[in-house]
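User: I'm curious whether this sequence folds into something compact or stays loose and floppy. Could you predict its structure so I can see for myself?
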Amino acid sequence: MTMSQRQVLQVFETYQKARTQFVQMVAELATRPQNIETLQNAGVMSLLRPLLLDAVPTIQQTAALALGRLANYNDDLAEAVVKGDILPQLVYSLAEQNRFYKKAAAFVLRAVAKHSPELAQAVVDCGALDALVISLEEFDPGVKEAAAWALGNIARHNGKLSQAVVDAGVVPLLVLCIQEPEIALKRVAASALSDIAKHSPELAQTVVDTGAIAHLAQVILNPDAKLKRQVFSALSQIAKHTVDVAEMVVEAEIFPAALACLKDPDEYVRKNVTTLIREITKHTPELSQIIVNVGGVAAVVDYLGDSKGNVRLPGIMMLGYVAAHSENLAMAVIVSKGVPQLAICLEEEQEDHIKAATAWAFGQIGRHTPEHARAVAVVNVFPKLLNLYLDTKSSEDLQVKAKKALKSILQKCTYLPALEPLLYEAPSNILKHVICQFSKVLPHDSKARRLFVTSGGLKKVQEIKAEPGSAIQEYINAINSCYPEEIVRYYSPGYSEALLERIENYQPI
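Assistant: Here's the prediction. I'll summarize afterward.
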């Protein structure tokens, strides 16, 4: 070999080494958020793009990996990938290159698609769906996983994008992926099915029609927590839409096995199981009864006791949905000690939306009969609901739900010890319901009538200023008619002054 030939080879080796070092360094720097802005300002996108077409496969792959990491960071960088006309090259290479490149290319597509519907649409518009479907049929599980993840990120945004994914023939292939032995592939496939099914009953039905429920049900007791999270999420997103699909989920015999996962060490497994139970029970009394029969209500009450914060929300709502259906189902919540547990949630939780859901659940339990209302009243929840309704710092939704719950329970409540404190604290729109209940109970209960006098209740009623002919005045009249006239007069405002005046004016014989 001549001197000049060696020099030429040396130049090419140096050039290749420099390219390799460059893409590796950029890929490494892109893993740390503090470097992203500097890389962006240095114009790294335009430098990486030609390296996607490099003759050396490892340089291509590393360039794609670096682009994926950058695009994953924020939507500005993802947009730069789209504007740099990089996507068509990646899509073309998905069909042509080796498995390592395919994984890296799918990673870029996934990173771009995750940020917004517009960016996901840009991925679809460059023909990525067909290329990703082909990747789902690859032998290599890593390529399948990368493709499934990208498809899930496209489908998650809205029904239109999800439908485009379905129309590309993805769903049957995702169901096959769930049956593969690789745990990571199962996870991503279940997640993608969840992202597809969540948007509409029609999309959920498409997932159901491929037999997905049975295959998801088979892995609910897999020891992998991340897989269980995705499986229960997918089943929830399917079950939420219609009675028919919820029944199909139940018929897959996931209960009572799924209830065991309410004790899972992973917080999100527990939350997703509870969400699934909520989505099933909300539909019909019959579905709620099935959950009651397998011990679901008691299990959710225990779950609430072991949880804090937002993960409690689906459990609180589930108890409300069950109780809303019928007297018997509301009594099942009471018997399972749901009411004291909800009272603890109302006391402990700081977020208004959780308190609002808890207030709503109380309303669903207590609105049926005096017995139901008493179960709520004895945990001393009335003053708390009243305070939440009157507190100006409460959100509008919390105020509305606390007021509605309070009214609906009060209209059934005949447990007077819980009602009496409200005589002193409630505004007139709540007070009228309290007075109404006293006017119903006192005529038939001599012990309660006596207690009402000695506790100061009768005196308080006489102090209420009601419009003549108003409903509240009618209730006061009904209460007063339960007592001798002189007793009512004795407790009326100004009576003691009138007595003193009579004493002053009295002339002894």
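Summary: DSSP finds 35 helices and no strands in the chain. The mean pLDDT is 86.
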